[in-house]
Design a protein that fits this description.
Helices cover 46% and strands 14% of the residues. The protein is an alpha/beta fold.
Length: 701
């Protein structure tokens, strides 16, 4: 590992931050980001950093201050406010106490922030306060953990790093660790850093650069030592082709996702689902297919910092019957149930030491390892699942390295529980959830006015949305627009609803990304203006293929998927006012939309037994959404304007004034009707919501 220190970047950070935050915090921000940029040092909010400086209060008093990373903040993107300031002298006085509970420690830390609005500082704040060094860096470096998580780890660390470091046996993070670290430094002054067994590395310096480069130097030494000790390779007993593993993921993911869902005992929302992300690459396949993969995998995590994301242990499913779907389903169900029971027993054994006010976490596994496929990683949303995936990748890599040297030794069960059920760790988990946070939706015809409006509203409610349409610039621009706001909760999927293989491939792409589908919006449609006497048969058939066959193919694929996943689902077919009140010269559209509407009603009858609700939304004329014009009205509008002698603005006013409420109908209105069904406000299936401002002739009957 090489130092990334750049004097030019230092100048930029000083220019950007020093005038407001001071030079010390500007440099702290720069070197913290250098650490965060190295995934082999810290991942997703891991590690913590600090600087001792001064704070000038409102009275003009200059006070000794500790600026320490806030709990859960990501070093890779941290801003100066991510290191809240505290009264250093007061924190240092706490060291005289013989004991300090976690609850009291957090209270003392929060009440001695200089700004009450600041985020809660790191669980290791007192470590940074008690160690008498200006800049302090704490990381969970892969190479260091590979040394510490072994029998005789202390001896190995000293062999690798020499006499420049102090080695401290595992102490639970908090007040006791802070005291132990300070006492170790006082007993052995002059060292450049400290290794905490089964936890990580601490370095310090008088300057930000000195502390940072000591981290790089020690991690480099550890890596060199590991490279020299490779003697006992973890061997794959089979070599699963990468493409075969990815195909198996498509097969397995919906089954896994279904059994991982937590029953709620609520009729309308019977499951709390999870999002799944796969970890499938050559290295992971070699691990799960190896002779010692299972033994290494079923050991505690590398560092207690990972517990809150991955749980203490993964689930390993032996000899998956990929060629026998029924048997495979039974294997997965049995394995997950056994894991749940074991987790509940673990909680019962350790419940006496659970902090007051902490709720039990869900009992399902967060990580599932399957030979021949790889790993499945779960979370309440794609962001949590991705964190779990990245930590799992790091964990398997380091455990494989340890397997090259000897055996693995992690934390005891008591230590694991103490950190998994630690209030400051739970505080890292955002408990807030929007209505559709755990759901996955697919929207066809998403690049048009109605489809884009529906997609946006679902995303605003926390949903993961696969926006699908024919490939091209319209779809690409929508994906870019939505991803800039909603990030990884948006997936662009080129899809032709008239093609059986394209529809199946679209579902497979969504399953590959998120594990399954819960909500389906059948919206893709095309229009034609023609009298029956003049209608071109091939033009009619084009509408029939999109509006009818496209609806049928989406309903068929959704039904198969929902049955496999086993947790129900919701479908909304975007119908039309023309189903109930057809218009002259609009026979092809009216007839094919009526056929699609009838298919949806039949689907509501057939899918109810698997917990799927199918409903319809019937809008009147919608011309555009934002900058996106309706494809249907691009087709229909010119003829309607000619027939009525109106321009585009006048035509829109005509449609507004013909409804009872004199309302302009928008894609947002349609989206809210879809949202009504998807949030299951009432126990309803087979119903139609008109979104037309009130058109008596078009009322469903």
């Amino acid at each position: 590992m090489k130092s990334r220190w750049s004097d030019q970047r230092v100048t930029e950070f000083l220019s950007q931050y020093a005038s407001h935050w001071g030079e010390d915090l500007a440099l702290r921000t720069y070197s913290a980001r250098l650490l965060g940029a190295e995934k082999s040092l810290v991942l997703h909010g891991g590690g913590n950093t600090s600087v001792k400086s001064t704070h000038v209060n409102i009275l003009g008093d200059s006070l000794p201050a500790l600026f320490v990373k806030a709990s859960g903040y990501d070093l890779a993107v941290i801003e100066p406010e991510g290191h809240p300031g505290l009264d250093l002298k007061y924190l240092q006085r706490l060291r005289v106490l013989p004991e300090l509970s976690d609850q009291h420690m957090v209270r003392e830390i929060r009440t001695h922030l200089f700004d009450f609005r600041s985020p809660t500082p790191s669980i290791e704040t007192l470590v940074h306060a008690f160690i008498p060094k200006k800049f302090i860096d704490h990381t969970h470096a892969d190479a260091i953990l590979a040394l510490t998580n072994q029998p005789e780890g202390e001896k190995i660390v000293k062999e690798a790093l020499g006499d420049d470091v102090i080695v401290l046996d595992y102490v639970r993070p908090g007040f006791r660790l802070a005291k132990a670290a300070a006492e170790a430094i006082e007993a052995d002054p002059g060292k450049q850093g400290m290794v905490w067994m089964r936890h990580g590395l601490v370095t310090w310096g008088d300057t930000a650069r000195e502390s940072y480069e000591r981290t790089i130097e020690m991690v480099t030494k550890a890596g060199s030592y590991l490279a020299q000790k490779v003697s006992n390779p973890v061997k794959a007993t089979v070599s699963t082709p990468l493409e075969a593993a990815k195909d198996r993921w498509i097969q397995v993911a919906p089954v896994l996702r279904g059994f991982l869902a937590e029953p709620t005992l609520e009729d309308d929302r019977p499951y709390r689902r999870v999002i799944l992300t796969p970890l499938i690459n050559r290295e992971v396949l070699n691990f799960v297919d190896s002779d010692r993969g299972k033994k290494l995998a079923l050991t505690p995590p590398l560092t207690s910092d990972h517990l809150i994301r991955t749980k203490a242990f993964p689930l390993w499913i032996d000899s998956p019957a990929y060629d026998n779907p029924s048997q495979l389903r039974d294997q997965i169900n049995r394995a997950i149930n056994e894991y749940r029971a074991a987790y509940e027993a673990y909680l019962d054994r350790n419940s006496a030491q659970m902090e007051t006010g902490l709720a039990r976490l869900a009992s399902a596994p967060r990580v599932i390892l399957m030979p021949g496929m790889g790993a499945a990683c779960s979370g309440k949303d794609v962001f949590a699942a991705n964190i779990c995936r990245d930590i799992t990748a790091q964990t398997l890599d380091i455990k494989a390295k340890i397997g090259l040297m000897g055996s693995y030794q992690g934390l005891t069960e008591s230590d694991l529980f103490a950190m998994e059920y630690h209030s400051l760790q739970h505080a890292k988990l955002d408990g807030s959830e929007l209505l559709l946070s755990r759901q996955v939706a697919v929207v066809t015809g998403a690049a048009g006015a109605i489809g884009s409006g529906i997609s946006r509203v679902l995303l605003e409610q926390g949903c993961h949305v696969a926006v699908t349409d024919l490939p091209g610039e319209r779809l690409d621009s929508l994906v870019g627009e939505l991803q800039s706001r909603f990030g990884d909760r948006v997936l662009g999927v080129p899809l032709d609803v008239t093609d059986l293989h394209s529809v199946a491939g679209g579902f497979a792409a969504i399953i590959s990304a998120w594990g399954g589908v819960d909500l389906v919006v059948v919206n893709a449609g095309v229009a034609l203006v023609s009298s029956l006497g003049e209608m071109d048969l091939e033009a009619f058939r084009r509408l029939e293929r999109v509006n009818v066959e496209g609806t049928l193919l989406m309903l068929s694929e959704a039904a198969r998927h929902f049955k496999t996943q086993g947790t129900g689902g919701d479908v909304v077919v975007i119908s039309s006012k023309n189903v109930f009140a057809p218009g002259a010269k609009f026979g092809a559209y009216s007839a094919t939309k009526a056929a699609a509407h009838q298919l949806a009603r039949i689907a509501s009858l057939e899918m109810a037994e698997i917990g799927v609700r199918v409903n319809m939304v019937a809008p009147d004329a919608i011309f555009s959404e934002g900058g996106r014009e309706s494809g249907l009205w691009a087709e229909v509008g010119p003829e309607r304007m000619r027939a009525r002698g109106l321009d585009e603005k006048q035509l829109q006013e005509y449609y507004r004034n013909r409804n009872l409420l004199k309302s302009k109908i928008t894609a947002g209105h349609v989206a809210k009707a879809v949202l009504f069904f998807f949030t299951r406000q009432t126990p309803t299936t087979g119903a139609t919501i008109p979104v037309d401002g009130g058109l008596p002739d078009a009322a469903p009957r």
